[in-house]
FaeA-like protein (Haloarcula terrestris), 63 residues
Amino acid sequence: MSDSEIVDAFEEIEGPFAGASEIAEFFGHTRQWAHQRLSELHEDGTVNKKKTGKQSVVWWVED
């Protein structure tokens, strides 16, 4: 999946935030794959993240 395909997925997923599991399901990959790709996109400033629990993170794209 390209970076732009992952960013575009946020428009298809209901709600302003997405979990790695939602991104994984959307693309048919594992949660670990999605978390890694989202982390890479966060490092380059493409997506934002917030830790919401001990092991929970939500991700989003600014408009």
